[in-house]
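Q: Could you write out the predicted structure for this multi-component system? I'm mainly interested in how the pieces pack against one another.
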Amino acid sequence: MDGELGRIFELERERERIVRTVVEREAARKMAAPGLLELILNDAAFFEIARLEDSGSSELARWRSLYRRLGRMDEEQRRAELLGLLERYAGDVVGNFRPGVYRFATRVVPVGLSLLMRPQLNLDRLLNLSTVRERILVQGEIPLVRQLARRGTLILAPTHLSNLDSIVIGWSLLSNDLPPFTYGAGKNLFFNPLISFFMHNLGAYKVDRRLKFTLYKDVLKAYSQVLLEEGYHSLFFPGGTRSRSGAVENKLKLGLLGTGIAAAIANPERPIFVVPCTLNYHLVLEAETLIDDYLKEQGTSRYIIEDDESSRLSRVLAYARKSLALDASMVIHYGAPMDLWGNRVDPQGVSFDDRGRPVDTRRYLMVGDRLEASPQRDAEYVVELGAKLAAAFHRNTVALSTHLVAYALFSYLRRQRPEVDLYAFVRMPPAEPLALVTVMQESERVRNALLQLADRGRILLGSQVRKGPVEAIVAGALRYFGMYHKRPVMVREGDGIRINDMKLLLYYHNRLADFDLERVLARDLVAALPASTSPLRAASASLDPGFAATPDGVRTARVAGGYADRQPEAGSSEASNSTGGPR
Amino acid sequence: MRVGVVGGGSWGTALAQLLADNGNDVLFWMRHGEAAEAINRTRHNPRYLPEVELGPGVQATTELARIGSECRVVLMVVPSHGLRAVARELGDQLDGGHVLIHGVKGIEPVTYKRMTQILREETCCRKIGVLSGPNLAKEVALRQPSAAVIASHFDEVVQTGRELLWSSSFRVYGSSDVVGVEFAGAVKNVMAIAAGLAQGLGFGMNTMALLVTRGLAEIARLGMAEGARLESFQGLAGIGDLMATCFSPLSRNHRVGERLASGQTLDEIVRSMDQVAEGIKTTRTVHELASELGVYMPITAGVHRILFEAVSPREVLADLMDITRYVYEFAP
């Protein structure tokens, strides 16, 4: 059975060889051009000295010495230095997988999860997975993913919100007979010895995000490529880091994704499939820290956060007990798998273009009549794949009650005070509770817009959001919002709802901020106008550019995706993430 | 190398000649069997640019399947409304290695898709590019010095196109701004109608320069709202193409404008033309897209009123000249 589940069961035996392959390949590549070595070593020394400058670490002296000697070293010495570094970093990165630990974890983790969620001991429920199953819904293209796991190598690409993501993904794989995946985990996660033990032996490899120099990044990529071409299913978070704003990822980090193309060229016999996957939480463990970090200084937010809620065991336990106490408190959705060019894939692993014709993917990689890497071409393939993935993330997002109500109320409040800048705005929760009738009205409008989007296949809806009525959705959201966060995001107060925490309201609102909801809502408003006003609208639209910013009532919003449909470079997504307002 | 040219109109004919001049083996697809047969027999396209002699390297065909299976590079030059259907049919023979370059200036109504997006949807190809610029087919065919731009995200496409088309009378520049080059090429057809109108109304060069300059500004505004780069509008595909279309009486769109100015109705004009004036449909599409995006395009709105809202050219002109009383513009 283990063999069925994938190459990862051979990792323990193969890891030495994999490290050697990585070192040899990178050494060969870096020694290919004369003079390159000096640049590479210089780059490494420069970044490491800058990083360690104030640390007083013994490493620092070593790098400084290298930096000084570099100019005088001959090619032979540089090679020795390079080999030493490659071996060191490849050895540091490499992960392991011990089937024994895996089998132990597969028995213990579900029990542990059930325990967390239902602290009163109930052995009947512990012995099957049903408790967790009711809490964490796993849905989507699971049978297809399972079949493709046998036909080729999978890249699982989930959205990223929380440090719990990898644990719940692990659980979803396990409980659905999907194979375990190898994945890169931030080195900071390895500091806890217990977690480190499990991660280390369950296929995780170490990524030290403090190391910025090319040589290290190349080792990571080479490692990832070797794993993919040898058939190890791999998990990447293409968002790179947890979404700070709470929004669905729009800008993806393409580096590791690009190793898929290189692997496909190196081993054309084994196709690679990309599986987009969304994690949809009613409540997010680290929401408070993440949105704080997002608001602190957009763009300079910390890439690595070491002191958030996920590092405090009591918060994790509280989260698991409280937030995950309700049925369907999170939904994991596996989207339709695609090939490296974003083509749909069938259970046999055959790719199909948008018109349903089979595609021979090797043709994408040919130069003349040979498979060959071509850096510019391959980089462009990855950019297009990134756009396809971002679109798939949106399509497969599941809107839940907390998102809907937060979106409705935040955008309502924002419309009342559009002149206040966002940073000031989130610091002043409304003095009075919002009238219940307003809350219901606004939530109903957003729900209607979501239903329209869902009809067009642009988003998915959680069962409560789909079923309604809006009273039940609002009640559900209130229950969640009162459950785990230090202060309830909002509470019922008399005939109204008091907003306590605008930042968290923004955070949960942001999950739906990138779906053109405002456009759909505005269209409903315009459609509701009496017909006699429309010539007026047309006339003023042609004269007054300001008016035209209100979307025209006639057109349907354009569907995202397709060639060159990527976002303009300048952070338009940033803007819509933060305010959700129309451009 | 064997190159496919899909579309037997004037631009297709001029490109086939250009490719053959450069020593390429050209497979020239067109729908009309008689035209294809005539080309293979007489070396002249009887319908378009009949004066141009096509060298022995050009072979005409009506079998679209041959294009995909025999050519690794295909130039698509069919009218914009026909591109989707032709691409879908051609797509049966295409694979991921094919290079597709189109020379079609238009935007799909309703969906607002650019031509490269249509090619991307209808085929499995990724190596897709656009050829655009001030290229009045007749002048290119007469080997008058001309130049064009090929834009693609793939260097290989740009490189391939340049090598195939570059000649002593035709320069080819490269770009990666696909959106900019496509928008510039499509929207300038609207300005061409406006230029024809201005000329038909008897105005001189001041008016024409006003039109070209402010027209370019609004084209660039729209393109940039969709992610284009400003430089593209300053180049051959932008101002270059706009000048050629606005100043040349050879342009079909220009003629539409002139005839509108003389009092003919759109229906009469369309019925009497044998080739498509892309600008008519483009005006509607661009006007709708601009209102949806909130992009200010007064000249386009004016042409739209004349074409589709039965407003007289004089009235629109009066409004346009009056417009700055209400809206303050920063003139770039």
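A: Regarding packing and overall arrangement: The first strand of chain A starts at residue 136 and ends at 140.
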